C-alpha cells in the first residue's frame, strides 16, 4: 500500500509513522509537505503527531488551513481512509473531519505514559483486526487530549458507533483514574459517521515493536492495511 | 542616541577588572568603544572564557581512540560508535536564568544545548537533565519563613520542569533520563543542567569555522530583539536579592517551534555541502559566533548590522551584538552557493540574511550603516581571555567533617520506620511527577525509559541527519546501535570530601551504565560551584576536578566537553559543590539490555560487592541520606571510592549480563541496600496507575559483626543488587567469584512483602505500602 504521512512545520512524529509503516509493516510510506496541493498516488493518509505551526492559537487550528489539508478533505470526502494521531487527531477535529474537540488535560500538565485502551467497536477500518473489547497497551504524550463534545454530538456519535477507543484500567473498567486527561466518557479515539476518518490521542506508532516495550499498536495499522487490501480485492473482483 | 563615555565605573559595571581593562586597551592599541567594551565583557565572562577554571579543566583526560572531536575544539565533542556512526553530546547549565524566571530559564537551557548539537551536523535524538532545588517539603514544626521558602522552591521546581517539558516536547526530542536532588543549599539558587545527544555519520561532522576568504556570512533564524542582553555576563555573577527584578531582562524567551524549523532547515542545508562553517548564537549571541568562527579558522570576519533582522526598533550596535535572542544561527556559505541557503530557508519560511564576509585580516569588524563600531583581533578576543590561577584553601568545615565520629551516632532501633522515611524523602522518592511531563518516547527509540538506572536509546536510520540525494544512493543502511545514558552527582559527598565525591560522581554514572549492560564511552560534565574568587570555593573546585579526572581515567571515559557554572551563590551562601557527570555508553546487543526491577517469583537475589567497607564498616553512613534525613546530620567522611573495585565490578557485571543469566541489576546509592531492594520491588511501571509490585525475602543473618544502620542504610560504593533465575544462581555466584567480584546470595524474589532478616530479628514491609510512599510523595507535595 502507499501511505502519505503529512509533514507540517512542527510535526515531530512524522518520521516515526514512516518508520513503522515502512520498516515494521513493510509498506510504502512517504512524507507529504504541507504546501502540496495534491496527495498523488495514495491509498491512505496519516496525520502525525507533533506541534504543527507551534500549536499557536490553538492545537491544530492553523494546520487545517494548509494546502495539503484541502487535498485531504477531498480525499476523505471520496471515502479515502485518514488516520490522525495525537496532534493529527486535533487537526482533524479542527478541520471538521471528526466530531468533538480536544482541550487541555484536566491536570493542566503534559502527560507521557502507557495507557490501556479498550477497543469499543471492531466495525471500522482502524479496529477490524482487534477482538471485540480487546485491550491495547499504547502510550500517550500530550498536553491537550481531553476529548469534549456537546451532549447532542455525543449522543449522535454513540448512536452511530463512532467511539473507537476508551481509556480503561488493565481490567477494562473506564474509571476516572484510567484516563490520562479527563476525556468525556474516557474517549481516546473516534471516527466520522462514514467511518473512513479516525483520530486517537495515543501513539500506536510508538507501540509497534517489541524492543519499545510492546506491539499492540500494530493492530491498528494491521486493521487499516487489511481494510485497504479488502477494498483492493473487491475492486479487482 | 550616542554611546555613553567609558568611565571606570562603566568598566566595573561590565565586570571587567582594571587589569583586564588595561589588557583590552593593549589589544586594541586604544580605548574601546562602548560596543567593544560590551563585546569584551561577555567574551571574557567566566561563562564564555572559563578564565578561572581553564587551568583545572586542562587536567581532565580528553583523548581516546574513539574521540573524533575533542573537548574545547568545537561546540560539542564527538565520539565514534562504530560502523561509520558517531554521537555528539554535551551538558550545559542554565542556573541563573532559571532562578530568576524558571520556565523560560529552563526552556532556553534546553534550546541552547539542542543547538550546540545540531551545530555539529548531528541530529538531536535525546535530552536528559540534572536538577537541584531547595527542599519542597517541611516538617511539622516548620516556621513561617521555612514554609514560604518551601513554597518558593516548589514554584521553581514546577516552573523548571514545565519549561523543560515545553521546549523538549514541542521540539520533539525525548527527555529520557535525569536526576533531581533537593537540599537547603540550593534555596535561591536552583541548578538546571541540560544535556543533549545527537547522532551523525563520520563524514557529516560540521565545523564552527569561518574558512574561505570572501565566503558570505549568513544569519538565519528569527530576528534579534533586546531579550537576553548580556546573559553570559549575568551568569558569571553572584545572585543577589535584587537579581530577580534587575536581571529578568537578561533571561531569554524560547520558541521550540522555531528551533525545530531551524534545526530541520540547517540539517537539510548541511546535506547539500554548501556550508563551510556553522555556529549557533548562544551565549554572547552574534559576538561569540562571529569571533569564535573567525578565530578557529584563523581568518577575519566583517558584518553589517543594518542587515541583521531586528525585532525591536532603534536597537543600538551594543544591543544587537550582545542580544541572546534564541534560535539563531550563523552560517558561512561557500561562495556561489548562496541560492541553496535561500531556497531551503524559504521552504521552511524562516528569515535569513546575508550579513557579511569572511576576510583575511584576522579582525572582527562590525559596521553599522557603513561606519565601524567594533574592530577587534578575533583570535585575541576569543582565545586570549585572561587566565587566572586562583588560590585554593581548605575550608574550615572540612576539619569538623573529618573529626566527626560516626560511632557517636546511635544505631537504629526502628529500621521499619527508617526505610519508610527514606522513601518519602523527595531526593529518593520516585520522580515520575517530573518525567511524566516530558515526552520521553518521541522518535521511536526509547528502549529503557526514565525510572531505571540508566536510559537506553535505539539509534536507527532515521536518527541520522539527511544525506544529499547523491550520497543517499551509495550510502549503506545504518547499523542499529544502543546507547545508554546516565547523569549523576551526589553533591553532599562532594561537599564533605570534594576529591572522593568527584570520583564517586563518575563511578556512579559508570555503575548505572553497567547495570543496563553498557560500556562507558565518554563523559560530559557540568561544574556547578560558588564564587571562585573565594579560596575555599576554589579548593572545592580543584579537588573535585582532581577526583573527576581520576574517575574518568579509570573508566577510559574521556571528558568530551561540558560547562562551568560558577558564582552559584545566593545571599544564603554558596551551593554545595555540584559536579554533574553525564556519561554515554554503548550496549553491544539487545539481549544485554537490563532493567532495575525484580522480574519473577523465585528468582535469586545476589549482592555484587562488599556489604560494607571492610576497612571501616561505618564509613558508608558518612554523608548518607539516612544520616541527613533520619538524624538531621550533613556530616561525616563520605564512603570511599576505590576505582579499581568499581572498574572490576563494571567489567564483571557486564560479563555476567553477556552470559545471559542476569534478570535485573540495580546499583546501591542513596539510602543504601534497603532502599535499593525496595526500589527493585516497586519500580516496575507497566502502565498508568499500574505498577507491577513484587516482594522479596532477604536474609542478612550471616553479617553479624555489622551495625544495623550501616548494613541497611550505609552507602558503601561499588555494590549492585542483581537477580538470576533460581537455577542460574549457583552458576552466577561461581562465575562472579572467578571474575574477582565479591558476591553473596541475599534471598529470593516473591510474595507481597519485602522482609529482611538480620541477627537481631526480622523486619517486613508490604510492598504496596512502600510503593505508595515512594510513588506519591512528590505529587502530594506539589498538589497545593
What does this structure look like?
The complex is a heterodimer of chains A (237) and B (784). Chain A has a single domain (2-236), classed as Rossmann fold, CATH 3.40.50.880. In chain A, 24% of the residues lie in helices and 24% in strands. Chain A has five helices and eleven strands; from the N terminus they run βαββαβαββββαβββα. A nine-stranded mixed β-sheet of chain A has the order 2-1-3-4-11-10-9-6-7, sandwiched between helices. The model of chain A has no long low-confidence stretch (mean pLDDT 97). Chain B has 784 residues and is an alpha+beta fold. In chain B, α21 (498-516) packs parallel to α22 (535-554). Chain B is 36% helix and 23% strand.
The helix-and-strand class of chain B reads: alpha+beta
Secondary structural class of chain A = alpha/beta
Number of strands of chain A: 11
Tell me the strand percentage band of chain A. 15-25%
Summarize the main sheet of chain B.
7 strands, mixed
Main β-sheet of chain A: number of strands, strand sense, barrel status?
Answer: 9 strands, mixed
Helix content of chain B: 25-40%
CATH names the topology of chain A as: Rossmann fold
Counting copies of identical and different chains, the oligomeric state is heterodimer
Number of separate helices of chain A: 5
Question: What spatial form of chain B do the alpha-carbon principal axes imply?
Answer: globular
Contiguous runs where pLDDT drops below 50 for at least 5 residues of chain A: none
